[in-house]
């Protein structure tokens, strides 16, 4: 029964209801001309210390209410925020200054849309997550795009060699966190009974043990910092028992990591959730189907105002966890939402499904990065919310530039 429900959710677009009646809306991926991010100069920097502690929950963060009071960032501000650091697997680091071309007037506005459903985040009720244990789902798109980061987070495949995740999975705003120097990405695979015996000597085994140890240390630290704030769960039938085939990971080294300068403390005053994203370049390409980037539409352009994401929540060890929920409020850079999630799912790619232009086919694209459970400044008072960082035209241009190394393939999104 659970499999049938899951198939229905994945294959049938959600209907928009108004006063109990269906309304036909334009749920389409509209191509937009995006600004150009152009590299100007690259400088060598000292190697990072890689000594920072993982920072799961942030405080005093400028949220949606705070953003409403901010002035529109100038072009020079945006050039500063979108400049980026690159850290390579040998520990060397560079800083690249960028220029922004073709920026539309409204592309940098902090406009927001209020919704009537706005309320403080609640932690109660039935756990609405689905554990994906059936290999028919787990090893196929879209679930196969979810990956595990060796620092204890999740991510999503966005090209044959690139992974999108949250910046604070790698950097706490001051320094790169412990374990990020030898960063690895785990791609999901299925392991049948009897598999996993000695193969290719002991070297592979030692490497897997090292990765597992790194992940265990970071997971333990993240759980301590979460202070039990996860949703109080009631038993449901949505957690499927593990079948004869168990999930495992094929670990791949990260060649380089890129993080926007807007994430660093001292650039925006404090860490800014607006820039809580990073791209990891893998040392070797994978053969899995990846998910394309999309520019985040407004809540009104989302079927049922719903978003989806899958990750590796810490409280369900070895399981891929899928969830969907509605967005309650938005600014030009952030979503507040009520998806059930635990540490480990941070960095997951948030996606939705819309029609392709002039086609009847529906397509999934990534529209945000799940930043996690954060403390936001709401009229001078700290309140906690589940937050996702939207992919705006500027962020789309930057991430696309990181993937392709030029702006020629990033003119529309």
From TrEMBL:
Coiled coil: none annotated. GO terms for cellular component: extracellular region. Residues 205-224 have a biased composition (Basic and acidic residues). Gene3D superfamilies: Trypsin-like serine proteases. Residues 225-235 have a biased composition (Basic residues). Residues 1-20 form the signal peptide. It holds the Pfam family Trypsin. It is found in: Secreted. InterPro entries: Glutamyl_endopeptidase (IPR050966), Peptidase_S1_PA (IPR009003), Peptidase_S1_PA_chymotrypsin (IPR043504), Trypsin_dom (IPR001254), TRYPSIN_HIS (IPR018114). Keywords: Glycoprotein, Secreted, Serine protease homolog, Signal. It comes from the Eukaryota. Belongs to the peptidase S1 family. This is Inactive serine protease 35. It comes from Terrapene triunguis.
């Amino acid at each position: 029964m659970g499999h049938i429900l899951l198939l229905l959710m994945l294959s049938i677009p959600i209907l928009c209801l108004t006063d109990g009646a269906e309304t036909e809306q334009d749920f389409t991926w509209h191509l937009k001309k995006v600004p150009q991010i152009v590299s100007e100069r690259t400088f060598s920097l000292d190697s990072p210390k890689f000594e920072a502690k993982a920072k799961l929950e942030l405080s005093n963060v400028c949220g949606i209410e705070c953003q409403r009071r901010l002035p529109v960032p100038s072009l020079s501000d945006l050039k500063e925020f979108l400049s980026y650091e690159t850290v390579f697997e040998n520990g060397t680091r560079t800083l690249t200054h960028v220029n922004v071309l073709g920026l539309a007037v409204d592309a940098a506005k902090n406009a927001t849309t209020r919704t009537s459903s706005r309320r403080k985040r609640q932690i109660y009720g039935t756990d609405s997550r689905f554990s994906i244990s059936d290999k028919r789902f787990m090893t196929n798109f879209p679930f196969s795009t979810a990956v595990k980061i060796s620092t204890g987070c999740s991510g999503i495949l966005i090209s044959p060699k690139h992974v999108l995740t949250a910046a604070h999975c790698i950097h706490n705003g001051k320094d790169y966190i412990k374990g990020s120097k030898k960063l690895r990405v785990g791609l999901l695979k299925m392991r049948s009974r009897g598999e996993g015996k000695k193969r290719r000597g002991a070297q592979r085994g030692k490497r897997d043990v090292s990765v597992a140890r790194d992940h265990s240390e970071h997971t333990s630290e993240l759980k301590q910092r979460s202070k039990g704030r996860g949703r109080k769960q009631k038993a449901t039938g949505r957690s499927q028992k593990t079948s004869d085939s168990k999930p495992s990971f094929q670990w791949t080294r990260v060649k380089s990591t890129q993080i926007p300068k807007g994430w660093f403390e001292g650039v925006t005053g404090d860490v800014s959730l607006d820039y809580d994203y990073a791209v990891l370049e893998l040392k070797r390409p994978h053969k899995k189907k990846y998910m394309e980037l999309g520019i985040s539409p407004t809540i009104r352009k989302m079927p049922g105002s719903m978003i989806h994401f899958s990750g590796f929540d810490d409280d369900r060890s070895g399981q891929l966890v899928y969830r969907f929920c509605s967005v309650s409020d938005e600014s030009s850079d952030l979503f507040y939402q009520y998806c059930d999630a635990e540490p480990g799912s941070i960095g997951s790619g948030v996606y939705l499904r819309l029609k392709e232009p002039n086609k009847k086919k529906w397509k999934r694209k990534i529209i945000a990065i799940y930043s996690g459970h954060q403390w936001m400044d709401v009229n001078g008072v700290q309140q906690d919310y589940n937050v996702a960082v939207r992919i705006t035209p500027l962020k789309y241009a930057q991430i696309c530039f990181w993937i392709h190394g030029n702006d020629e393939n990033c003119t529309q999104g």
